[in-house]
Amino acid sequence: MPRKEPPPLASAPLAYENPDFLGSPDGRLFRVLAEYQEPMTRFRRERIQDTVVFFGSARFRALDVANHDLELLANTGSATPAPPHEQPATKEEVARGEASGQKLKLAEAAVEMARYYEDARKLAGLISQWAMTLPGRRHRYVVTSGGGPGIMEAANRGAYEAGGKTIGLNIKLPFEQQPNPYITPALNFEFHYFFMRKFWFAYLAKALVVFPGGFGTLDEMFEVLTLVQTQKLAKKITVLIYGSSYWKSVINLDVLAEKGAIAMKDLDLFHYVDTPEEAFEVLKAALKEDMQAQAAWEKEHPLPSLAGGVPQEPAPDAQTILGPDIAKTR
Questions:
Q1: Within a domain: residue 172?
Q2: Is residue 110 domain-resident?
Q3: Per the structure, how many domains does the chain have?
């Protein structure tokens, strides 16, 4: 018997509109490429040339640093508070004698972290105010963070209060989290892949400031230090480790050199700093050197001119000229 005529067939989805394909293992390549090209498009549109990156703890959230107790978050990047028994003791609990030893220790730590929050906020403001005075058609040394709470919020907040653009490179996590409100909306990013997020941290940065933090901060700091140590980036990155008392109690980098695990000269890859003013002076001196080096390079590699006839090679287009200054790899 002849087969029954089939019903009309709906159009198949376009490949780039097919969520089943894009979300599958076969679509991973396109997801990775999207996390490169989509940020690149926005950086070009916003005329971002390079960045100063802030790393630090995301677990302390300051609702209003001057007037409220700090709140400890449940996890790095989470918007959910830690359980009450893990929170720092409040002034009222201390006054009533209701604070446990652990809560008192956390309260002391909260005071310390509040200082680091304010220091990051001030330093980011100093950098942004100075960077906005620099000549050029692109935004230089834009303050960048991981986009979350804590030190990240402080950095974005300081840049925002100074009137500058500021970048947040957030990461999608399995628990609740959200970007802080001080990020420039057009420069608010969310990544699925940690390695693509790290790419954008490293390849636009001309300086890195590492405030006290935990696993994520350690991971990001050593990732950049390894790139600098192995000269995989064809540029100089100034690395500041902020809060020498904190960091020297957490890790002893001198022992690595004493035991021969790193070279003695590797200890020169970073600088300890303890005040926003000290950090700003070190950064400003290093970034002025970067500007001088770039000016010298541009003098040796001028843009093509039509005075001698049509050049053989095409001139860079406006998007290339005004796009971000991504470091080359060696």
A1: yes
A2: no
A3: 1
Per-residue pLDDT of the chain (330 residues; tens, 9 = 90+): 788 888 999 999 899 999 999 999 999 999 999 999 999 999 999 999 999 999 998 876 564 554 455 666 666 656 677 777 667 666 666 556 555 666 666 666 777 778 899 999 999 999 999 999 999 889 999 999 999 888 999 999 999 999 999 999 999 887 656 899 999 999 999 999 999 999 999 999 999 999 999 999 999 999 999 999 998 888 889 999 999 999 999 999 999 999 999 999 999 999 999 999 999 999 999 999 999 988 887 788 776 655 556 555 666 676 677 778 877 766
In-domain check, residue 2: no
Task: State the residue range of the domain holding 289.
Answer: 33-81+115-298
Cα(239)–Cα(283) distance, integer angstroms? 9
Q: For the packed helices 215-229 and 194-204, what is the interaxial angle rounded to 10 degrees?
A: 50
* Nearest CA among 190, 174, 166 for reference residue 35: 190
What CATH number has the domain bearing residue 277? 3.40.50.450
The answer to whether residue 248 is domain-embedded is yes
Q: Pairing between strand 71-72 and 60-61? A: antiparallel
Per-residue HEC secondary structure of the chain comes to CCCCCCCCCCCCCCHHHCHHHHCCHHHHHHHHHHHHHHHHHHHHHCCECCEEEEECCCCEECCCCCCCCCEEECCCCCCCECCHHHCCCCHHHHHHCCCCHHHHHHHHHHHHHHHHHHHHHHHHHHHHHHHCCCCCCCECCEEEECCCCCHHHHHHHHHHHCCCCEEEEEECCCCCCCCCCCCCHHHEEEECCHHHHHHHHHHHEEEEEECCCCHHHHHHHHHHHHHHHCCCECCCCEEEEECHHHHHHHCCHHHHHHCCCCCHHHHHHEEEECCHHHHHHHHHHHHHHHHHHHHHHHHHCCCCCCCCCCCCCCCCCHHHHHCCCCCCEC
